[in-house]
């Protein structure tokens, strides 16, 4: 049946792999804790103001049900009613732009990265007691 010694049978699939090539792993970016919070949009302002009202009227609702109801109420609003929330969003956008300008003027993410690197160096320096802990009492130390 098989002409070659050690042959197990016919090759199925033609030898072409159907697997997708793996994507390269990208390191996660570390967010600077001092960076300004991003601006909120008009829908977020609407939900912040209305969520408590819905919770009081319907305490039995789950968070997903409350979110669904908020979305339905948002869709029912007229453009004029949405405009008031839009003005809040515009003000928040201006706040964000001002804070980002100040943040960038003071070194921004580069300054934060340098500070984090300096802190890591200080923790790992030889002879420094900063960050050193006594692990002799740990049960796994034996």
TrEMBL record:
Protein keywords: DNA-binding, Nucleus
GO MF annotations in UniProt: DNA binding
InterPro entries, sorted: ChromReg_NeuronalGeneExpr, HMG_box_dom, HMG_box_dom_sf
DNA-binding region: 36-104
Region of interest: Disordered: 1-42, 109-142
PROSITE patterns found in the cross-reference section: HMG_BOX_2 (PS50118)
Listed Gene3D superfamilies: High mobility group box domain
SMART domains linked to this entry: HMG
A Pfam family recorded for this sequence: HMG_box
Domain HMG box, first and last residues per copy: 36-104
Biased composition range(s): Low complexity: 109-132
Any GO CC annotation of this UniProt entry: nucleus
PANTHER family, sorted: HIGH MOBILITY GROUP PROTEIN 2
Biological process according to GO: regulation of gene expression
UniProt name for this protein: High mobility group box domain-containing protein
């Amino acid at each position: 049946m098989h002409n070659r010694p050690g042959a197990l049978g016919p090759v199925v699939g033609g030898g072409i792999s159907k697997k997708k090539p793996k994507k390269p792993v990208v390191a996660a970016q570390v967010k600077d804790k001092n960076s300004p919070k991003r601006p909120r949009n008009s829908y977020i302002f609407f939900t912040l103001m209305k969520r408590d009202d819905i919770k009081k009227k319907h305490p039995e609702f789950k968070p997903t049900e409350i979110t669904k109801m908020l979305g339905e109420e948002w869709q029912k609003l007229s453009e004029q009613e949405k405009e008031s929330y839009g003005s809040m969003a515009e003000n928040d956008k201006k706040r964000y732009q001002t804070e980002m300008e100040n943040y960038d003027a003071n070194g921004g993410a580069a300054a934060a990265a340098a500070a984090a690197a300096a802190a890591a160096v200080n923790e790992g320096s030889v002879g420094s007691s900063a960050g050193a802990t006594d692990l002799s009492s740990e049960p796994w130390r034996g």
